[in-house]
């Protein structure tokens, strides 16, 4: 990876660096608290690399959950990643051997970052997106290692520390809202997401279920695909 590519990719990832160091450390502390040291934290962050999934993994390891339960809960929790990829179909097209890693590294923060940025002039797009994904991944690994190492040296009460992941989601949503500018039309995707989520919570609770995530994601996906033409036309008008 050339210095030019890294120099171009690093500035957009600074917010992710701040967030991933914090929540990565929180994960490392939680994993250490259930009896798994720094090497396990690094291993999980390299192989799994799914923030909320790794947080869940701490609980599953602590309770010695059976593998079928682990598989099902992980699938339900990370099911949203399927929909993240829809917004990046064009960016990932033609990326060649980099594509499998780009798909693997499509976390919440990275999937929020990639659609909103373009490479600087003279920088190869495929290498630029690949560098962003690798940098974000390295931040998470480093945060996990730091947290687990601190946890092995100092005893912490980790109660409530998993809220760090929720806090990161809120920050990402606020930043995207600000970046979209003024006007209800510019915030239409965010409003669709918010509205579908609230509706899913209300409907699933009326039906006596707590599983609101998948219905919300399906509704969001259907609406965004239905309105995709209008959203793309609006984007072209704003650029011209």
Question: What is the strand and helix layout of this fold?
Answer:
Blueprint (H helix, E strand, L loop, with lengths): L2 H31 L4 H10 L3 H12 L4 H12 L2 H4 L4 H4 L6 H6 L3 H6 L11 H29 L9 H17 L8 H19 L6 H14 L1 H12 L1
Instruction: Give the count of helical stretches.
Output: 13
Distance between the termini: 34 Å
**Secondary structure: number of strands:** 0
Order of helices and strands: HHHHHHHHHHHHH
Helix content: over 70%
Overall pLDDT: 82
Largest sheet: none
What number of structural domains do the residues give? 2
Give me the secondary-structure category.
Answer: mainly alpha
Percent of sequence in beta strands: under 5%
Shape label: globular
Model regions low in confidence, pLDDT < 50 over at least 5 residues: none
Based on CA atoms alone, the radius of gyration comes out at: 19 Å
Task: Describe this protein with a few key phrases.
240 residues, mainly alpha, 2 domains, 13 helices, 73% helix, globular
């Amino acid at each position: 990876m050339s210095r030019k590519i890294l120099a171009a990719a690093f500035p957009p990832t600074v917010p992710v660096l701040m967030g991933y160091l914090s929540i990565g450390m929180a994960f490392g502390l939680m994993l250490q608290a259930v009896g798994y040291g720094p090497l396990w934290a690094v291993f999980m962050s390299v192989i799994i690399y799914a923030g909320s999934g790794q947080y869940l993994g701490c609980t599953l390891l602590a309770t010695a959950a059976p593998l079928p339960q682990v598989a099902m809960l992980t699938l339900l929790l990370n099911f949203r990643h399927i929909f993240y990829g829809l917004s990046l179909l064009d960016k990932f097209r033609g990326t060649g051997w980099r594509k499998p890693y780009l798909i693997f590294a499509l976390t919440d923060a990275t999937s929020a970052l990639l659609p909103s940025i373009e490479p600087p002039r003279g920088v190869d797009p495929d290498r630029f997106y690949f560098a962003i994904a690798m940098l974000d991944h390295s931040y998470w690994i480093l945060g996990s290692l730091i947290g687990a190492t601190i946890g092995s040296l100092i005893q912490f009460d980790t109660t409530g520390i998993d809220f760090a992941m929720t806090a990161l989601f809120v920050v990402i949503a606020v930043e995207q809202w600000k970046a979209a500018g003024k006007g209800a039309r510019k915030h239409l995707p965010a409003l669709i997401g918010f509205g579908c989520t609230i509706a899913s919570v209300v409907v699933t609770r009326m039906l006596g279920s707590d599983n609101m995530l998948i219905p919300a994601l399906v509704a969001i996906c259907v609406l965004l695909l239905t309105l995709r033409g209008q959203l793309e036309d609006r984007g072209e008008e704003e650029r011209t």
